[in-house]
Amino acid sequence: MTDASRVPATALEYAWSALGADPALLTRVSCLPRPAVLEARLPVRELARACVGACALAAAELGARRAGLTEVPQVRLDDGAIATAFTSERHLLVDGRAPVTFAPLSRFWRTADGWVRTHANYPHHRARLLAALDLPKEDPEAVAAALAERSAGEVEESVYAAGGLAVALRTPEEWAAHEQAAEVARRPLVEREAPAGEGRDGRLGGARARALPPIDAAPLLPAAGVRVLDLTRVIAGPVATRTLALLGADVLRVDPPHLPELTDQHADTGFGKRSAALDLAADRRVFEELLAAADVVVIGYRPGALDRFGLSPQELAARWPGLVVAQLSAWGAGGPWGGRRGFDSLVQVATGIAALEAAPADDSARRPDAPPARGGSVERPGALPAQALDHGTGYLLAAAVLRALTERQEHGYGRWVRLSLARTAWWLTHGIRPASQGTVAYDGPGAWLTERDSPLGRLRYALPPVSFAGGPADWARPPGVPGADEARWERWDAAPRVD
Questions:
Q1: Which label site among 95, 296, 326, 480 has the fewest CB atoms less than 10 Å from its CB?
Q2: Distance of alpha carbon 216 from its chain centroid, rounded?
Q3: Which helix (H) or strand (E) holds 126?
Q4: For the residues of 47-74, what is the DSSP string, one character each?
Q5: Are the C-beta atoms of residues 485 and 252 closer than 8 Å to each other?
Q6: Out of 75-84, 186-195, 244-253, which region has the weakest mean confidence (pLDDT)?
């Protein structure tokens, strides 16, 4: 890569440190910064660059160890590739058709004292929202009228009580005063804590895991032979497992038969994976066989939701020593909102991001002596230029899994890692400084889009931004039909294209 400069951004250093990694390896990273990508009041470009950079470096580190290389391969970052990948769902075309990313009832609404944002992309969430509002059918005008009569806080709580999703708009000051914000802020960006009585420093169990075999240096697939059980949905978790699939892992996504993933969502995040439908209660024997042979389990359901199936980190560690367990949630595992459902758009609203992005880009901060702003005073809420909390946390989650596998190669122990969208939001709003925009022109996403046929149709999609010398440039297989694969492990040896 020409005209690249060494990455000086403290955001990457912070992310790499949060993964418990060797800071000396940061010298292996170079970046091609570009202006006018992911433009926002908040340093979204820097967050995206750091998350992808940490993931690529973790992949290169694991690859070097498994291939017996004397030096970690050079990591190359390009702001254009990263920005395109962070908006991958917007670039997706299926047979020339652009998917709808938000349903009609997934939007901002005026309330009697401010704003709320709802999320109703999934049919069961839409039904619960309508039930909470006592509405018989989907009618945006009726929803608007019902919400306009209620306070934002009342809507938030009543819809949550009905099992739906609605979050009141808060300013950064209002979020900072919330008990959940205090819980989120006290936790590290990447949690590596051990369950009670299980090892130290996040290591799971006392028995040694199987060692991963050596791999070839070309193509360099750091996760080759790693079996990943993918229990995630929507964007963040599937982005993490899509990245592990890119790097050679055998990723099997499992969804409940009664709650299938949206097909267009799967078309964006299902690259490199297989997808099976499995009832964890009725098909328990099959699931146990998958668990017994897995190296990694990635869980994207709200904390505690799968505990009844024996999928708490503590129980997984006790039964399957050496397993790497990765958990992802919207609000974090603790605090009053720890068990709540959530999505990127809702976390932006709760944490003050939507209020911050509502102001013009050239608007300066409020006067230091001004009273704290309130969500109700926002004229029109804004949003980040990408679902950056989802994508950023997804790449960090993949990085945490890769680092855990590297450590497992050395020590033989599994590890439990945990991240949340809310903690990534806290980092974005409190811990990242803007960096140089660069001078290399950004002429749009075209250079990082490609097409291929798939069982879902002809796909136009964003290429992966994770790039290192000798590594893969694209996924080895396109997404298939959701739930159409057998629930079993499969060695899939077709080699992907290489840089």
A1: 95
A2: 29
A3: helix 123-132
A4: HHHHHHHHHHHHHHHHHHHHHT-SSPPP
A5: yes
A6: 186-195
What mean pLDDT do residues 233-254 have?
96
> In one letter, which amino acid is 397?
L
Q: What is the model's pTM?
A: 0.90
**Cα–Cα dist 385/30, whole Å:** 24
Average pLDDT of the residues of the chain: 87
CA distance 12 to 432: 9
Tell me, what's the pLDDT at 148?
93
Separation between Cα atoms, residue 213 and residue 429, nearest integer Å: 42
Residue 310 to residues 212, 304, 319, Cα–Cα distance (Å): 26, 10, 9
Q: What proportions of the chain, in percent to the nearest 5, are helix, strand and coil?
A: 35, 15, 50
Please provide residue 317's backbone torsions phi and psi, each rounded to the nearest 5 degrees: -65, -40
Q: In what order do the strands lie in the sheet with 274-277?
A: 203-204, 414-420, 324-329, 296-299, 227-231, 250-255, 274-277
Which residues neighbour 191 within 8 Å (Cβ) at sequence distance 6 or greater? 202, 333, 417, 418, 419
Give the CB-side neighbour count of residue 212, counting CA atoms within 13 A.
Answer: 35
The pLDDT of residue 217 is 87
Burial of 38 (0-12, 13-18, 19+ CB in 10 A): buried
Selection from 21, 85, 5, 58 nearest residue 471 by Cα: 58
